Amino acid sequence: MNTLDSFPSQVRVAIIGASGGIGSALVETLARHPRVASVHALSRSPCTFSSPKVAYGQLDLADEDSIRQCAGLASSEGPLDIVIVASGMLWAGESLRPEKSMKELDAEHLGRVFAVNAAGPVLVAKHFLPRLRKDSKTVFAALSARVGSIGDNRLGGWYAYRASKAALNMLLKTLSIEHARLWPQSVVIGLHPGTVKTGLSSPYTKHTPGEKLFTPPIAAGYLLEVVDKVRNSDSGGVFAWDGQRIES
Ligand SMILES: NC(=O)c1ccc[n+]([C@@H]2O[C@H](COP(=O)([O-])OP(=O)(O)OC[C@H]3O[C@@H](n4cnc5c(N)ncnc54)[C@H](OP(=O)(O)O)[C@@H]3O)[C@@H](O)[C@H]2O)c1
Q1: Order of strands, edge to edge, in the sheet holding 245-246?
Q2: Residue 190 Cβ contacting ligand 1 at under 6 Å
Q3: Does 2 fall in a domain?
Q4: Cα(172) to centroid of ligand 1, in Å?
Q5: Could you report the per-residue pLDDT of 48-85, keeping only the tens digit for each?
Q6: Ligand 1 centroid vs 208 CA: distance in angstroms?
Q7: Domain containing 17: what range?
């Protein structure tokens, strides 16, 4: 378990997308951590956690009022130290699958994926960044993906997912600049969790070698190590599970 000692003791956390594979593993790992005082587990679908440190709240990224209300509730006992947006969308049933070629491009599909992967996290930032502690290091992170790197795009395909994550990375960079003006110790980053065995990745991991397919608890542990290590000079960047910076 990483130390989280770059934060003050009694760390307060909010996880958005707590019903997901990686989100639920983040909630459980943080709730077991001795330096963590409380975890606000926020998601659209209801979910339960056994630790008394965890408080559940309903948050739908498509409903800004629910984001505003959850931000108020999550910070009612005091400002937050860590906020992680672990929600995201790659496919939804048979009708919405990542595009293999431009023939499959569809405006409605593009809009749905952008709404969840880009607009959702930036609206979370709008309401949660002002709720962060001001006098010590804080981290606002959103789960991005290596395929959102423009420089790293060698295979093509997956238009909506790639472009929504590239947009997310730009939104995070822009937020980092504005937020640092009043919160100089803040860190705003994107995180790539590696390939993780979850519902999101399940149709696409048949050929992933076992050692490159992380379980959600393993991925959560790696991501929290990155959250602990980053400094304010890293703000605006995107980092992989092993701490390596990913090019834009
Ligand atoms: N798994 C991987 O290999 C992998 C690789 C690279 C990046 N990532 C990124 O990691 C993040 C987490 O993915 P995961 O693998 O844990 O996926 P997952 O198990 O499918 O979880 C996705 C989460 O997103 C939430 N979500 C979707 N639409 C939402 C909305 N409108 N409002 C609120 N929540 C919404 C889901 O909530 P509901 O339960 O309510 O649907 C769920 O909590 C995503 O951003 C993904 O792009 C994953």
Answers
A1: 54-58, 36-43, 11-16, 82-85, 138-143, 186-192, 238-240, 245-246
A2: no
A3: no
A4: 18
A5: 999 999 999 999 999 999 999 999 999 999 999 999 99
A6: 19
A7: 11-246
